[in-house]
Amino acid sequence: ALEALKHAGQYAFRDRRAKKRTMRGLSIVRINAALRERGFKNYSSFIGALKKAKIDLDRKVLAEIAGTYPEVFDRILKKVS
What CATH number does the domain located at 2-80 have? Predict the structure, then answer.
């Protein structure tokens, strides 16, 4: 039982870090899907255009905006295009 408890702690430690990677990947997929719906080329060119336009929004916020507030996401796209 002690061994199982020790392993549970190791798995929890590992998965707290893995969760961050998984969520970042999910945000990227959501942003890319929203971009393709609107005819934008791809995710990487969008991120490059955001940096060039000095729009400092992280991926989590962009994914939330794309899913919840599509009209705001469209305005962001107009600014970077």
Answer: 1.10.1900.20
Taking the whole predicted model, whether its pTM rises above 0.90 is answered as no
The pair of structure tokens assigned to 40 is 């934008």
Supply the DSSP string of the chain, one letter for each residue: -HHHHHHHHHHHHHHHHHHHHHHHHHHHHHHHHHHHHTT---HHHHHHHHHHTT----HHHHHHHHHH-HHHHHHHHHHH-
8 A C-beta contact, residue 43 and residue 26 = no
**Type of residue at 63:** A
The set of residues, in sequence order, having a beta carbon less than 8 Å from that of 30 and lying 6+ positions away, is 63, 66, 67
Express each pLDDT in 19-62 by its tens digit: 999 999 999 999 999 999 999 989 999 999 999 999 999 999 99
